[in-house]
Structures are given as C-alpha cells and as structure tokens.
Amino acid sequence: MNPTTPAPDETQYPHPAYGWYVVGVLILIYTASYIDRIMLTLLVGPIRKSLEISDLQFSLLHGLAFAIFYTFLGIPIGRIADRSNRRNLIIGGAVLWSAFTSVCGLARSFGFMFMARIGVGVGEAALSPAAYSLLNDYFPPRKVATALSVYTASIYIGAGLATITAGMLIAALPAMDVPILGHLESWRLVFLVVGALGIPCALLTLTVREPKRTGMSKRYGAEGAPFSAVVSYMWDRRGAYATVAFGLAAVAMMTNGIKGWVPTFFIRTYGWTIAETGAWFGSGLLVFGTTGVILGGILASWLRKRGDLTSNLKVAMLTAILLMAFGIAAPLMENPTHALFLYCAAIFSGALPFGAAAAAIQEITPNQMRGQVAAVYLFFVNLAGIGFGPTVVAFITDVVFHDDNAIRYSLSILVAVGVPLALLILGLGLKSYRKALEEKDF
C-alpha cells in the first residue's frame, strides 16, 4: 500500500456552523449562475421571433453553445482549483458569466448570441469544480453527501426562480428605446437585469475563507496532482468512475431535456401564457426539485450509515425507475393540470441523485485531484445533459416529426430511451464502485 496521511478526524474541519454558512453562500451564487443559464427556456418564442431561428437552432443556444467551453474548460479549471485559492476562482467566474449574460441581451443575430452563450459557459465552468472541492474540506466524509446535495439543490432553486422571474419580467418590462443600445424588446431587458445579479453574489463570496485541505495522499505533493496522474488514477478505477459519470450523464440528458422544453410544451400544447407557465412550472422546479435533491442526499447518507457502500448509486437507480413512471406519461396528458402534476413528480425524481453522485465521485478521489476529477465528471454529465438533452428533443421535433406541436411526443421518447440506458450503466457498475471504495488508500 502506498504511504498516506491518516484519515482526518472531525476536529480538523471548520466549525459546522461556518461550514453551513459557506454552503449558503455557494447556494446563492450557484442559484445566480443557474438563473443566467436556464431562463432561456421560457423565452423560446420571443428569441426565435427576434433572431428568426428554428427550434433546433434555439436548442444550440440553450445547450451546445453553453456546454462547449463549460465542459472542456472545466478540466483545466479543475487543475487550478487543486492548486490555488478556490474562493477567488469562483469570484472571477461569477464576474465573467454575469457580464456575458448581459451581452446576450444585445445579440442581433444567431452567431452573436451563440458567442455570448459561450462566454456564459466559460464563466460558469469555474464554479462547481471549486465548490465540490471546498465543501469536502468543510465537512467530514459522513456529512459530505448531505452538504453537496443541499448545494446541488441550487440547480432547482435557480431553475425555478429563473422560470418564475423571467415570466414576471417579460410581463412587466415593456420594449423600449435605450440610448446607444437602440430598441430593446422585453426579453433583452430580462438578460440585462439578470446579468447584474451576479455581481453582489461575487462580492458576498469574499466572506468565504479558503479552508485547510484534507484527505491528502502522500503520493502527490501539496500543490496538486498533474493531470497525467489524474488520468492514470481514474483509468485504474475506470469501472467506478465510468459508472458514475455515464450513468448520471444519461439521467442528466433526461432532466435537462425536460427543464429545457417543458415550458414551451405548456405554451404550445395548452395555450398557456409565458407568465402563467413561468409561475406554475417555475414553482414546481423550485419546490419539488429542491426537495428531491436534498432528500436524495439524506437517503444516500442514511443508507451509507447502515453499511451500504453503493448507496449513492442506488439512489440514482431509484431516480431512473421513478422517471420511467412519470416522465413518459406527463407530456401525453390531455389535461394541463394532470401534466403539471406528473411533471412535478418527474422533477422530484430526477433531482434525487445529483448531490449523492457528486459525493460518490469525491469519496474515491484524493484531495490533490478532486477539482480535476470533479471537472471530468461534470464534463460528461453536462455535455450529455446541457449539450445534448435539449437538442435531442428539438431534433426529434424538427427532423422526425417536422411539427412544432409534436414536442409532447419528443419529450416522452427522450425518457423512454434514457431510463433503460441509465439503469443498465448503473446496475453493471455497482461492483466496480464498491471495489474502488474498499481499496482506496487515503
């Protein structure tokens, strides 16, 4: 066995109250980032009209443009997180994504908007690798899954607030002529307003202290493991890492496809207004998504205390089963209330595994490479989820059905294909993950 430092006892971690304060600050900044990211889902109609683009082109703005650099830059940014001040990295990213969100409101063409969305992705790539690593140094292993689940709940807090806020702002902000900027439609003003929200969040992050790093392996220096060592380490445990990354990628493809197109589904299928859709679907994301991701972490922690080493992955498998039950049927309902009820259940189900999965990755990874490994994990999850999830729905709608109103069938097909894939990957990988956890040497 390679020489390692002893496992840290819980007295080596910061005071729990301050740790939860840090979680609160990270929730706020992650929420702001997700508002920047997700509010496009409610603005499909106005943006398509202004830029004269199709559903497929819009899906590229929503997904691929954001995901390209968000995923690829995550790996070198993870390297920075393993070697430098993680708090400052988060602050720099927040300033960058906020600026480019405002720039999105000035786009007059598909190409300009595409480049601005890339800028948003570059800024947001700095957040989660650094945050995952930070929280592992604020909480002992038995509490990490819960802390990361609470942090990950920001996805749904942000998505819900983005959907509600965008609907309200569209209704409240009239188009206007602005000196120098010219004529700005309501959706453009929404981007300008929301882009400004990230700056106070970045300033608040200055109150977070950089913690002492824990779980250090003597195999690597304190300055962080080189990426070649990260690749070698992950390759030696490829079954475990591939299970979590690809299994959660399949889940993310479904959940992001749902979040990306369900607002448009309600508008096209049931004739709901933007404000009405924002209020109802946004509330569903906020309440059921947040509850699901937190309860998923609590469930995983409870199972782990009872001796189940694969508890994090089993929560993800439960997610897939529940998504099959709710996600296929929801868009086929003739009554919008029934569809909304089923989608709330699907949102809850889809949210369950993401905090637990983040903990699963971190638990088998030494500290000196946690930022980089988190970035590799997020590369696959976000490329599949953000990059392909919304695009798969749009592709089926545009290319297979050639009918904007067929979006309900596209959403149903997405879940019908994604669930068996997720269950297959996760089920086959349980043994590999358990082995990696049992044989870890730090």
List strands and helices in order, with pairings.
Elements: H1 16-38, H2 44-51, H3 55-72, H4 74-83, H5 86-104, H6 110-124, H7 127-138, H8 141-152, H9 154-172, E1 176-178, E2 182-184, H10 186-195, H11 198-204, H12 227-236, H13 238-270, H14 274-305, H15 311-327, H16 336-351, H17 354-363, H18 370-401, H19 407-438
Antiparallel strand pairs: 1-2
Helix pairs in contact: 1-5, 1-7, 1-8, 1-9, 1-11, 3-6, 3-18, 4-18, 5-6, 5-7, 5-10, 5-11, 7-18, 8-14, 8-17, 9-10, 9-14, 13-14, 13-15, 13-16, 13-18, 13-19, 14-15, 14-16, 15-16, 15-17, 15-19, 18-19
Distinct helical segment count: 19
Instruction: Please give the share of residues in helix.
Output: over 70%
**SSE-based structural type:** mainly alpha
User: What's the rounded overall pLDDT mean?
Assistant: 87
Largest sheet: 2 strands, antiparallel
Oligomer: single chain
Q: Rough shape?
A: globular
The spatial strand order of the largest sheet comes to: 1-2
CATH fold topology: Growth Hormone, Chain: A
